[in-house]
Design brief:
about 475 residues, alpha/beta, Fumarate Reductase Iron-sulfur Protein, Chain B, domain 2, FAD/NAD(P)-binding domain, 3 domains, five-stranded parallel beta sheet, 17 helices, 18 strands, globular, binds flavin-adenine dinucleotide, binds iron/sulfur cluster, DPD_II, SudA-like, iron-sulfur cluster binding
Length: about 475
Amino acid sequence: MAKFTRTPISYQDPKERIHNFEEVCLGYTKEEAIQEAKRCIQCKKPTCVPSCPVNIDIPRFIKKIAEENFQEAAQILAEYSALPAVCGRVCPQEDQCEKTCILGRKGEPIAIGKLERFAADWAIENKLSLGKTNEKNGYKVAIIGSGPAGITCAGELAKEGYQVKIFEALHEPGGVLVYGIPEFRLPKEKIVKVEIENLKKLGVEVETNVIVGRTITVDEIFEEGYEAIFIGSGAGLPIFMNIPGENTNGVFSANEFLTRNNLMKAYRSDMDTPIKVGKTVAVVGGGNVAMDAARTAKRLGAEVHVIYRRTQSELPAREEEVENAIEEGIIFNFLTNPVEILADEKGWVKGIRCIKMELGDEDQSGRRRPVEIEGSEYEFEVETVIMALGTSPNPLIPRTTEGLDSDNRNRIKIIDENGQTTRKAIFAGGDNVTGSATVILAMGAGKEAAKAIDKYIMEKSLQTNN
Ligand code: FAD
Ligand code: SF4
């Protein structure tokens, strides 16, 4: 029955898309979006809303799409999210709003993410200006890092009338949205840059190539007259396995591999820093980062093997990305773990030695623990290995900031749910507090911190004026 069946969406043909970096999912047309929006039964107590980390009024924006009022649909989204065109593309909706959509009980849930993307793209294409700003209040706030956490915090404060400046270490703002997630999942010019431009239109200043903790310290930022600082520096430090051979030429961290492709356009041979992968590439890991690295290597012409120590059902990557990777011919080696990377006589990768695994008892995370099968080691030839095992926050800022505590995994300690750190006037949120998580959670943390910063500055100014 049409009510229970999702309106299909178009994708680039896998045979073609493995030769280009263009977006894979083509999005809904106007007619398709309206058709899908009309499936929503406008629940009185919508189960989808509490499952959205920023509580978007989902039925309200979907109703506007059904009524062909795309402008209002986009306006509703803008009330809740600074990056709807990004979230519509990369949020794990299947584990959040769509998982609890009532229609999912009898059929397919509403394609909430794809509808969000449609309305947000419509606003971009029609150059809709959605942000309203209060009059400037004369107070300055500094933001460290321009990822989803920093962008959201900056946008919220700018709208409240604060003079906001972002300090960003890289030459391009956007955090993982520009350096991590590839073009074929999240177009940079069309989407990310437009969202950053919208932020600048709100009056936010962005200074790139500033590494806080090295170029300037947190205390020096305060000396420039900032009332509060939000740290949204992410979790960009790659984790390695510490197995023999990991220093061999031809072993990359997924972060380096993706950054060189996304930010330095290394996939283009006419650029200064082209990247070459071997005929066969092994990607170790099973998250979104592993899928992005594997699919990027495929587009550079390699045969790509993903090596993952559990089974397909435990893969942490988004379902859609796994499906896309399978369609693109990525070969999955489940229940397999690398034990050594093998080098040739010139010090370049020539192979990888792996061991087969089986699933044992449940571990603390509730997942069955992978256990090595004795005597099952085997080798296969690869010329490039990409380690995609996760990342942790960089300790630079806590190390150079008196009174700012972090834990043994370099995560900045917060003392309440609003991002207050162990030092007055400094707030933090996103991956640097939680460890690698998701775009929407980082945005939620940025939003909460913005409210707390506003409250802190307003209370302080009342005390000073009394
Ligand atoms: P980041 O996005 O990491 O931004 C931090 C920024 O701070 C960076 O620009 C960094 O350069 C800057 N910075 C760091 N240190 C300093 C310093 N000392 N001085 C100045 N600036 C500094 N999430 C999803 O929801 N869906 C996905 O599909 C998904 N795919 C992903 C794919 C990849 C390849 C990666 C790496 C992550 C993915 N994630 C995904 C996770 C998501 O991108 C992150 O959780 C999110 O970006 C965290 O936001 P953030 O603002 O905390 O940090
Ligand atoms: Fe619409 Fe599903 Fe949300 Fe109900 S739960 S309002 S059907 S999206």
